[in-house]
Amino acid sequence: MLPFRLGFDHPGYLWLLLALPLLWWIGYASLASLGSLRRWMALLLRTVVWTTLVLAIAGVQLVWVSDRVTVMYLLDQSESIPVAKRQVMLDYVIRNVRRHRDEARKDRAGIVVFGRDAAIEIPPYDDYIPQLRRLESLGGRTDATNLESAINLAKASMPEDTTRRLVIVTDGNENIGQAKSLAARVADSGIGIDVVPVVLESSSEVLVEKIDLPNNIRKGQPFEARVVLNNYSESGSSAPVRGKLRVKQSVGGEDTLLLEETITLDPGKNVFPLRHQIEQPAAYIYDAEFVPATEDDDGLRQNNSATAYTYVRGKGRVLLIEERSRMGDFDLLVQTLRDANIEVVTQASDELFGSLAELQAYDAVILAGVPRVSGESSDLITSFTDAQIEMLVSNTQQLGAGLLMIGGPESFGAGGWTGTKIEDAMPVDFKIKNTKIQAVGALALIMHASEMAEGNHWQKVIAKAAIEQLGPSDYAGVLHWTMRGDSWMWGGRNGLLEVGPNRKAMLAALGRMSPGDMPQFDPAMRMAVAGLARTPASVKHSIIISDGDPTDPSPATIKSFKDNNITISTVAVASHGLTESRRLQQIAQATGGKYYAVANGRALPRIFQREARRVSRPLVYEPPGGALPEVIFPHPMLDGVDRVLPNISGFVLTQAKDSPLAQVLIQSPKPDAPENATILAVWTYGLGRTAVLTTDSGTKWASEWTGWAGYDKFYSQLVRWLMRPTGDTGKFTIATQVRDGQVQVVVNALSQDDSFLNFLDMNATALGPDLKPIPLRMRQSAPGRYVGEFPADGSGSYFVNVIPGPGAAPLTTGVTVPYSDEFRVRETNQALIESLASTTPRGGQAGQVTVPLGTQPSEDLINSDPFRGGLPLARSIRDAWPWFVLAGCCMFLGDVFVRRVSIRFDWIGKKLKALGGKDSQKDAAVTARLDALRKNKDSVDASLQKRRASVRFEPSQDSNAAPEIDLGSPSAPNAAKSAGPAKPEIPDGPSYTERLLEAKRKAKKDQSKE
User: Fold this and answer.
1) For residue 918, is pLDDT > 60?
2) What's the pTM value of the predicted model, to 2 decimals?
3) Which of 434, 524, 508, 444 is nearest to 472 (CA)?
4) What angle (nearest 5°) sits at the alpha carbon of residue 67, between those of residues 63 and 72?
5) 3-state secondary structure (DSSP) of residue 874
6) d(Cα 797, Cα 286) in Å, to the nearest integer?
7) What is the C-alpha to C-alpha distance for residues 419 and 538, in angstroms, rounded to an integer?
8) Number of CB atoms found within 10 A of residue 301's CB
9) What is the pLDDT of residues 699-736, one digit of tens each?
């Protein structure tokens, strides 16, 4: 019996085989002249040709049928499954496969693990599952259950040439995807589904479901917040649970305890109202937490808290950030803004905001001459972190707040802001590209391998941090000690190269740096001073990082640094005592540098960022006699402001961005390069606006502005233009809700006469807890109603900003997801489990729900056979019609050959006789036959001669007549010759040959005439 059978894609074409009788009837009559054998061979070949072509047209296929079974075990590893039961799952799979897999049939088994995502632990293969200690493939998040992803992955991984079945081990608490709808498509593929339920054993569970806040909370208006808790038990008859409920309010990084009391939770939902009143406009976060009296009353602690976000809008509010050591320098600006009815909150650079929610209370942020890194000693150094910088930028770009940078000796590039996202958000670049402006500094780093933990790693980090702060025209070099002595990492003998074209190569070289234990300072310092002296820079600085072990430098070396105006800052890292620390401190003091002592490498990057600012001092431009800035571009914010402004004595050099969106409004006549003489520039950045004022607000450079009559108007109009619109939002309302891992945003729009506002083009954006923008599109779903959604797949605060239309005040709100839905439900979803198992695969039987998985796999569970029958046998199909077309063509050539070529088969018998050794008999018979033929020929010739001789002649009566010759005598021919010639009797008429020749000639003549 063949291992395959034929199938057809288009079996309807097989009706064409009914034409075979007609083909035989026509062929039998038309092929009669071929003879019996050739005629039947031709008919047979024609039948084969027609049959193969019809089968090819019908899409013939070769179908192999297999009874092999592939079983994929899908193991739920989400956090709702206790850790102990995850190991029990694995034990169950191993024992189940060993007991039921048919080795002779070569059945296959595999494992897929899933949480928020799915991964293949063991691909399906024809052997037993090995004894594993733990599952290792699922490296992603497990704070959700995504059955759909697991089923999809298992289906794709199973071979199609076997019978297939899924065994899902889960509690059924799906919170991502739609496994039920996918199961129907899986069943159409003939895949069966068995489910092993995991029963959650928690006797009781308390959930803090939410804090419910009103949508519109106004300043000074009392409102009621409601905390919703759920006391749940699987049996439905749980006893009351005692515990403590705390409610906190957070604003501006400060927490206030609103409620703390002992409560008793009845079975089911419990609601606790909280009366409250907000006095100051700001962004508020409310946090509710329940602490049970005993651990037995609660199964999970992850769902014992919930948060809520609200924003109370008031009049315009601005956050001004200034350096701690210069607090008070901007008091005049603060008072001017307050006089203009703009509320200003000041914040020191060492007490910065900690979350994006805190920035929502402000419509604009002012960086008032503050550097990125500030502080004089290692203990007091503070800096803006990358996360805080990203919050400032996102607050402007995504949420529409304004951002203003005011100049000063430590602002812009001189303040270490070069290369940050703040620079991207500003209408100017902080790096000077004009070579005519000699704002050049040089920095030499001397690296000594210290005995600090991960010392070499931190030296690479700090060297990179310093070089990234330098401008493109600055010079940089690194000295390190190797087995061959002190050497430059690049630049050859000079050691210092221009940063601009070499920055990437420098950073790559630092990654390969491995400094050794330097025995003495003097050789490296002499190389550093020689390299810096040859460098065409206006500010030259060196930094030494060491533990103080090398010997002291010579006085001549220190003198050479002082003679060339080169300062040295030293960093003592894990020094061995007072002597080593004093050595480094003396080097810094002798050259006018700074001394730092640190014990932890994490403080080093901030120190080197601050020291790199020394090289950027040439960016501060203080022309002799000052400069008179002038308004060069009209702008609404400058309405009523004189075109010629009071004199300024200095500002920070910047580079105007090459963009049509960047507008330079005020410019200084000095220096000669206008692109570097910007005093005020603005542009729109995302949903917000940013501006730079490269001079200060009147403390040092713009002191003449303080008595200027236009001071108040200039600054108030500038800040108001930057601020997020704070006008009346009309009758727009915004609300959010979290459902199925999605945040739904709903905006209701009404006009002043309460009619619906339709067809609005709303601009919306959302920010996740990681401060990354999330696409949000608002669509009109009903008259005056607009709805948008975005995914919320992580816990934290999500911020939403919707601008209803051009010039309209933005609608700002937020929603907080305290924990995943994985921790909301604490019971087995039996309905989903039964629905999956009851799905009937095509051509097979529905699956089954086995006994639950307990603390140990029971014998009843192990005895459930997933390798059983009840599913359609697997079919492997391969198209065969091309081969049938080829066979039909070959048979057609055979048909033509049989009809056109006549072949005699008597040679076969002769060949067989020759092979039998009868060649001599054959030759004798042939010879005898030829002799007989020759004798017959001779006999015929003799008869003809006799007939010719017997012809009668009529001789004359001449006396010389020839004597009669006896033809039978041997001497007859001679006698005839002697007697003389005799004339034979010529018969009457032409002979037979002549008649044939004549007929041939006549035929040729007739043809020529035609």
Assistant:
1) no
2) 0.60
3) 434
4) 115
5) strand
6) 12
7) 22
8) 13
9) 889 999 998 999 999 999 999 999 987 655 567 888 88
